[in-house]
């Protein structure tokens, strides 16, 4: 689903994360008391993947791409390094027959601490999804690839 295709969604569209780590022996669930948020720590204990799915809120006339960039900036707080660091990416889409769900992402590593965030805002459906992956002492890139390959977005238009 491209950013432009998101404009065809409605308030009745159903968007969900498909949790691919829940049964994965290489990851352990961490407790969470926040609705719509869950996280895992990898077996080595050096990396954490945190997920969120929930209401987007007021997007102030933005399209999906603009709202996604604003979401990343807001959610990453002090970890955000600026618009120049954002790149396009793709979540796997459940039942998408080879198609994905466009997202925006950024990543950096500093002093052996890696940070990655990917997000997608669905303005018309008033929903958003994001994932962060952090690693200390382990390269974040391969872990991000694992996390993104095991989790998907379901979009019921």
Distance between the termini: 11 Å
Please estimate the helix content: 10-25%
Largest sheet geometry: 9 strands, mixed
Give Rg in angstroms.
15 Å
Q: Tell me the quaternary state.
A: single chain
Provide the spatial order of strands within the biggest beta sheet: 1-9-5-6-7-8-4-3-2
Beta-strand percentage range: 35-45%
Shape-level CATH architecture: 3-Layer(aba) Sandwich
Q: Which fold name fills CATH's third level, the topology?
A: Protein Transport Mog1p, Chain A
List the total number of helices: 2
Give a quick precis of the structure.
It contains two helices and nine strands, in the order ββββαββββαβ. The protein is an alpha+beta fold. The model has no long low-confidence stretch (mean pLDDT 93).
